[in-house]
Amino acid sequence: MTRVVTAQELGGHRGKDSCWMAILGKVYDLTDFLTEHPGGSAILLRHSGKDATKEFEKFHSEDMIERVLPESVIVGDFEEVGAGEAAPQSTVDDEEETPKASSAGNSTVASTEGISEVTIDMMLNAMDFKAVAEKKVSPEGWAYLYSAAGDEFSYAENEDAFARIAMVPRVLVDVSRVDCSTAVLSRHFDVPFYMTAVAMAKLYDRDGEKCVARGVSKMKRAGIDMPYMVPTLASCGLRDIMSACDPSLAKWYQLYVNPSEKVVESMITRIVDYGFTALFITVDAPELGTRERDMRVKVRQSAAVQGEAKQETAGVARAISSFISQSLCWENIPRISTMAREKSAARGGKIDIFLKGIHSPVDAVRAYRERHRLGVRGIVVSNHGARQVDTVKSGVQMLYECTRALGKAGWRGRSDPEFLVFVDGGVRRGTDILKCIALGASAVGIGRPFMTAMAAFGEEGMVRLASLLREDIITNMRLLGCRTLEELNEDFLDARAMEHPPPGKVRARY
């Protein structure tokens, strides 16, 4: 017979020595999980001895518990609240106050005082959305989204590097018709950018990835069809995300490889069953980078709850290591890609495999030369949003170096159907996207800006940002004298600064 836990009994287990919590009708003993929780122990202790269902649903999907916690931590069923009885609940009073916004980049909204109401029509660029979103997102959410490794030098460099590439317009060209559409993986898209994987979307909207899916679907209906890359660490269940997607939307999946082969096979089976057409294996995250901005929030929470400023970085690293393989290597890729392709073929489909997180021209060339053995269709040049290793080169700098090395190895550029190169990192404007395309990228990933647009104005904010980026691309194509993306190449750029990038000054940005 299943044990029933009353609200009174639950309330008697509050603290680090005995931490019980009710979630979705079950009571869990999370005492041994305190040091392993990726969000730190402080938030668990703050809600211990209570029904934390509402707080849990802000960040996680229902199936998260099954995937992370063993059955042995289940104490029993939580007793339904009877008449005249009140179960202890986590309340708004438990939460930290959301901070006021600070200035952010080239933003009229951030720098103008006295605006009583900010409307979506006032948003003119990605930085405007960021300024509004910072006022709405919790300290934890903002620190997670905008934290980067170390002194965050590489985060700044991701954006700054684009300014060192000069545009070279051509004149006296008939640009009455300009087309920024493209073909990627045998499919036509209206724009050359895509929504890349960003974890924990419930930190920025209560509907999380369901809101992201609705936003990208609305873009498609508005004539801005682009792919959506779903993250492994989504805060919504895959079924809910897929139900929110337009059925004809191009769906890609970002995969963190689990240490368990059984778990990997189960994940790939689900990916194939839901009709994903591309699988992006993350290869640059065997462990979580040192993200001090995020860590400082956890330290403050820990001090407030435990009375001591205790950093919980070890717990985060252990939690990451528990579900991301640290032994993933080149020899593992053929097995994963073969498994995915065979499962997809068995259902009459086709799935393309990419390596996401290539930093080095050496690795780029190896992936290209061994593409048939590895079973990969291409790579994503990326430094993981500068969240892993600080002082690595920017995404666009690595793109410049990788495409040159690939060309020497026989790669035919964007026209090569066997091997595609994508890039992400620091993209904020249409000109950034055009520079990436000119340097050889077939598509450009955008993450943080779409999250901040969603945090500011929901799915409509995402559509607005996509529209602004498309307009920026088309306007600058006309000004460059470029009518189609096929015409765009390095003749439209002066990228000599990429050969000898100036040394940067490391500085803390928070």
From TrEMBL:
Q: Which superkingdom?
A: Eukaryota
**Domain named Cytochrome b5 heme-binding: which ranges?**
2-79
Q: Where is this region: Disordered?
A: 84-108
One Pfam family assigned to this protein is: FMN_dh
Name the Gene3D superfamilies for this protein: Aldolase class I, Cytochrome b5-like heme/steroid binding domain
Is Acetylation a UniProt keyword of this protein?
Answer: no
A GO molecular function term, named singly, is: metal ion binding
Q: Which cofactor does it need?
A: FMN
Keywords of this protein's UniProt record, alphabetized?
Answer: Heme, Iron, Metal-binding, Oxidoreductase
- FMN hydroxy acid dehydrogenase domain boundaries: 118-498
PANTHER family tied to this protein:
L-LACTATE DEHYDROGENASE (CYTOCHROME), S -2-HYDROXY-ACID OXIDASE-RELATED
User: How is this protein named in the record?
Assistant: Cytochrome b2, mitochondrial
The uppermost taxa in this organism's lineage are: Eukaryota, Sar, Alveolata, Perkinsozoa, Perkinsea
